[in-house]
Request: fold
Amino acid sequence: MGSLLRQCLRMVTACVLVTVFAVPPSLMAEAHVVSPAELQQQAAAASRSRQHNLDTLMTFLSSPAAQKQLQSAGVNHQQVKSAMASLSDQELAKLANRAEKAQADFAAGNLTDHDLLIILIAVVALVLIIVAVHH
Reply:
């Protein structure tokens, strides 16, 4: 019985050792050190992306057609501008994407003034709702 136990222990030990040495160390302990330069580059890229998205929304809201629609809806342009600054990067990116698409569709003649009004009111409402939820 003792030799059977020893054989089992040898088999288990062999399996453990094969597993330990067969699996690459990179899978066992993922260690990635980020340099300060990489962190700075990532922060700069995020900042550029955020500024681009803010500029896109500002351009959309500052267009003559959007200004006309905002005035007709009784929406304060400055309130919307200041609210946009408090949006998260993801929320800002989504709204900027929608604004770019709406501008492209309007420029191509695919949208009427009424369609633009609906999109504009939706964007403004989303901005205000998101800001209200964050505060």
